[in-house]
Design brief:
With 273 residues, this protein is mostly helical. The chain has one domain. Helices cover 73% and strands 0% of the residues. It has 13 helices and no strands. α1 runs parallel beside α8, α3 crosses α7 and α8 crosses α10. The longest helix has 31 residues. The chain starts with a helix and ends in a 9-residue tail after the last helix.
């Protein structure tokens, strides 16, 4: 079996383990039993054991990714992943592009909300600032060693960036599926359509792959984007007035950016390495 075929097999094993743990150990049981963990919508809480399952379940992608690195790539691969996560020198251009895409997407969603006749209180941004630091752990660091670190890296040894990004986006979306059936999660309470959610994650996946491949495969680039995007998403979600139509249209800004990346950038039809 060639090295590239091994990489695809390893990517499949990572995906199966990550989804399996999500569905059968951590989040799935909470969804099936309708046991509340913790709500970020109204701050209500369930039993401690449910909260622990919910929180630890969020770290599965990175834990599995780092473990797989150690098993399949040895100490060198493991250390390389850690090194790429602190590869902070992206250049002002790519920090600017990352922030620009996120801010443009967020403002577009706010504009969409205003089209439905609803105002947005921008003071929410200041109110939410204390959550900025914790959010780098709950999301980027708990996931990206798996998604963009291990899975995307393995897929791009055999597939072009677009195909790899599509697979990562789909697996990323499927990993979230139990949250749509768990009591009191924002996905469940806010009525977010799963198909639209996955479409948004695929779009974000394409954008993040493009940024990573242009910054020397910096895993920090993915962590940074995921971090600021999560904060922006939290701010917008807190301030908009939701409806079924808005929920379906909400991913549109980032879908448009992803399409623009595919049309304007070079290299998405060739392997990254």
């Amino acid at each position: 079996m060639t090295k590239s075929n091994n990489a695809i097999r390893e990517a499949a094993i990572f995906s199966a383990i990550t989804l399996g743990l999500s569905y059968f150990v951590f989040w799935g049981p909470l969804a099936v039993t309708q046991t509340q963990a913790i709500s970020f919508v109204d701050k209500s809480k369930g039993p401690v054991w449910a909260i622990l399952l919910y929180i630890f379940g969020g770290f599965v992608p990175s834990i599995v990714g780092l473990a797989m690195y150690r098993i399949t790539d040895g100490a060198a691969g493991f250390k390389s992943a850690l090194k790429r996560s602190i590869q902070l020198k992206l250049g002002a251009k790519w920090y600017g592009i990352s922030l620009g895409i996120i801010v443009l997407g967020g403002l577009s969603q706010i504009a969409l909300n205003s089209m439905f006749g609803h105002a947005f209180n921008y003071s929410i941004i200041v109110v939410q600032l204390p959550s900025l630091i914790p959010l780098i752990i709950l999301g980027p660091l708990s996931e990206e060693f798996g998604w963009r670190g291990y899975l995307l890296g393995k897929l791009q040894t055999r597939l072009n960036p677009l195909a790899a990004s599509l697979i990562v986006g789909i697996v990323w979306g499927l990993w979230h599926l139990p949250l749509f059936y768990m009591n009191a999660t924002s996905q469940h309470v806010l009525g977010i359509p799963f198909i639209g959610f996955v479409l948004n994650l695929i779009s974000i996946s394409i954008i993040m792959t493009w940024i990573m491949n242009n910054t020397g495969r910096s895993l920090w680039a993915a962590i940074f984007f995921h971090w600021i995007y999560t904060f922006c998403l939290q701010v917008v979600s807190t301030g908009v007035t939701r409806s079924a139509l808005y929920n379906w249209l909400e991913p549109a800004p980032f879908v448009i950016v992803a399409v623009a990346v595919l049309l304007l950038s070079k290299g998405f039809s060739a392997r990254a390495r």
